[in-house]
Amino acid sequence: MKLKLKNVFLAYFLVSIAGLLYALVQLGQPCDCLPPLRAAAEQLRQKDLRISELQADLRRPPPAPAQPPEPEALPTIYVITPTYARLVQKAELVRLSQTLSLVPRLHWLLVEDSDGPTPLVSGLLSASGLLFTHLAVLTPKAQRLREGEPGWVRPRGVEQRNKALEWLRGRGGAVGGEKDPPPPGTQGVVYFADDDNTYSRELFEEMRWTRGVSVWPVGLVGGLRFEGPRVQDGRVVGFHTAWEPNRPFPVDMAGFAVALPLLLAKPSAQFDATAPRGHLESSLLSHLVDPKDLEPRAANCTRVLVWHTRTEKPKMKQEEQLQRQGRGSDPAIEV
């Protein structure tokens, strides 16, 4: 047993000596570990450089955002709205005025169907904060709707829209607000906005840079989800409509705008009160533009930004009953 342990110890000693001698020999050999060390050092240097660049970017102030054009540099939008006395008139005009107040560089031409200005409309305009011109002209009796007639039998708002066109052309007639028409050379666009429609604010920016006559779809009109131009390769090639598609301009009053310089250059262009049903828009546009030259807006007429909505006529049975009893609503409170 003692002999065996001695032999094991001797073998272990010899192996250790051999390992030590090999290590001493290797110390004298050239080492090929320098290139990997240099590569690792270069990687660390590149990372430090990138970190320094990122830190410099963080310290650098952000670029100034692009500034929108100053309001004075924008063409003015002249919005022409005919209106008439009825129970929902103030509600309609308040809603429309608050939409218009969101649009910069806008001038509201509000035209009453009356002999002169009414306190209700005058007060609403004064409180609106909008740049406005107040006009008034009474629709001739022969052109007025008779009791029980549907609204489509006779064109409405013809005299009022033409009155606004006269004012733009320098023929006066303002009863309130801005009295002077736009000076020669004014860049602007004219839009006919009925008081009962619903308008997106985006619509007004779409029309602002109109060069001739711009067009777009109108929702909830003509018995369809929408009516509007059909566009191919950026040009109007037809119209999506169900009623009399062969009209010269089968568009809704809310579906186009006219450049002010073009309108002023055509002094005879106006709406014709004797135009057949559905041809009122054509009676004006036929004096101004060829259908092939219409300018499609609203993403080539694929977006609806105005809706031909109508407020339901209020039912006043209880009011009439209370009035017969002498207990009607206070007439001094404006509704």
From TrEMBL:
Q: Which GO terms describe its molecular function?
A: galactosylgalactosylxylosylprotein 3-beta-glucuronosyltransferase activity; metal ion binding; protein phosphatase activator activity
Which pathway or pathways does this protein act in? Protein modification; protein glycosylation
Which of this chain's residues carry glycans? 300
The site annotation (Interaction with galactose moiety of substrate glycoprotein) covers 227, 318
Report membrane topology: Single-pass type II membrane protein
Q: Which GO terms describe its biological process?
A: carbohydrate metabolic process; chondroitin sulfate proteoglycan biosynthetic process; dermatan sulfate proteoglycan biosynthetic process; glycosaminoglycan biosynthetic process; heparan sulfate proteoglycan biosynthetic process; positive regulation of intracellular protein transport
Q: What Gene Ontology cellular-component terms does the record carry?
A: cis-Golgi network; Golgi membrane
User: Can you tell me which family this protein belongs to?
Assistant: Belongs to the glycosyltransferase 43 family.
Protein name per the record: Galactosylgalactosylxylosylprotein 3-beta-glucuronosyltransferase
Record the organism: Urocitellus parryii (Arctic ground squirrel)
